[in-house]
Structures are given as structure tokens and as C-alpha cells.
Design brief:
Blueprint: E1 2-4, E2 7-9, H1 14-27, H2 31-47, H3 55-67, H4 75-84, H5 90-110, H6 114-125, E3 131-137, E4 140-146, H7 152-169, E5 172-179, E6 182-188
Antiparallel strand pairs: 1-2, 3-4, 4-6, 5-6
């Protein structure tokens, strides 16, 4: 790294530099200012305990949620509403299933790897989940979600949403284990 008058030079691949120059022109900011802004944002993200390479994934999830009509509501509000409903209500379960199906179809169209994209979607959009693990091998998918705060009703609706999403990607549910705050689901092509 070379130092010139209080500034440092960093080697960057030519392809990345060309892409950044295009962004600089589109946004109407000098290249140096664009790079400084991006580095400042990466530092802020790191202070929030996220990795800088997760920034685009996070914004992609927010964009996907917005496009699909999603919104953020407090867990207590969702739990209250679900507590007032009969979670065995087929119409309510079908709404969650259909919402998931839309998400799966959208991710299939917008992503090279819709299963990985869905894993990121759950990880970044469901703050009530402590763990999200999605593994895909030779035509099968296993989804595991753990939450210390989710009610049984909320867990059941999340299962319907995940089922719909995987149907939208082209999988069929084989089995589901659903406990308060814990889901283990298996799917196949």
C-alpha cells in the first residue's frame, strides 16, 4: 500500500474498478468520494456486528421484502394477532403458503441459487430467528430454524411460509417437525 500526502493507494482489480467508475458516473460523484463513502458504510456495518460482504445481501432482502409487499411488525403484535386467530384456519394457512410461494417464485426468477437466496432472506428478514440453516444436496433440501422467542402459532405460520417458498422454487415437502420455536423440514424435487 503506497502512501501519498495523507492518502493511501490500494490495489483493486481492473474489472471492479471499471464497475465502480460506472457507478460513480451514474451517481454523479467523483470516484474517490464513492470509494470513501463505501468504506465508511462498511465500517458502520461492521460496528453493527455484520460483515461488510453481507451489505448487498441485506439490502437485497429488504428490496425483495418491499417488492413482495412485506412489512415489519413487532413480534408481540404478530403473536397477539395469531393468538386471536385459530391457527388451524385453512384460509390463514393458505395465505402464509401463498405468500411463501410468491417469495420462492420471485427468488427463482431473480437469483442464480434460489435456495441460498431464500436462506439469506430468512436470516436477514426474520429477526426473531436465532438460527437458520438450509442445506441442499442432490435434489433434497433440509430447513432448520430455531427461535427462543417465537410462539407455537408463529412457528406454525412460518412453516407454512417456508413450505410455500420451497414449492415456489420447485420442491415438495416430505416431512415437517414443528415445535414452539423450532422447525425441521425436509423437501425433495
Amino acid at each position: 500500500m503506497a502512501v501519498i500526502k495523507g492518502k493511501k493507494l490500494v490495489s483493486v482489480s481492473e474489472g471492479l474498478l471499471d464497475a465502480a467508475a460506472k457507478v460513480s458516473r451514474e451517481e454523479g460523484v467523483p470516484m474517490g468520494k464513492l470509494v470513501e463513502n463505501l468504506l465508511e458504510q462498511a465500517i458502520k456495518v461492521n460496528k453493527l456486528r455484520y460483515r461488510s460482504d453481507e451489505m448487498a445481501d441485506f439490502f437485497n432482502v429488504l428490496h425483495t421484502n418491499k417488492v413482495l409487499g412485506g412489512l415489519f411488525i413487532p413480534t408481540a403484535v404478530l403473536d397477539f394477532m395469531l393468538g386471536q386467530c385459530n391457527v388451524d384456519n385453512v384460509q390463514l394457512q393458505n395465505l402464509w403458503l401463498e405468500s411463501g410461494r410468491w417469495t420462492g417464485k420471485y427468488l427463482t426468477e431473480k437469483s442464480v441459487d434460489p435456495i441460498a437466496a431464500f436462506g439469506r432472506f430468512l436470516k436477514f428478514s426474520r429477526w426473531d430467528l436465532n438460527e437458520v440453516d438450509i442445506t441442499s444436496t442432490s435434489g433434497t433440501v433440509k430447513v432448520q430454524c430455531i427461535s427462543t422467542v417465537m410462539s407455537l402459532e408463529s412457528t406454525i405460520m412460518l412453516a407454512k411460509f417456508i413450505e410455500g417458498a420451497l414449492i415456489g422454487v420447485g420442491y415438495k415437502m416430505v416431512s415437517v417437525d414443528c415445535l414452539k420455536g423450532m422447525l425441521i423440514m425436509h423437501f425433495k424435487k
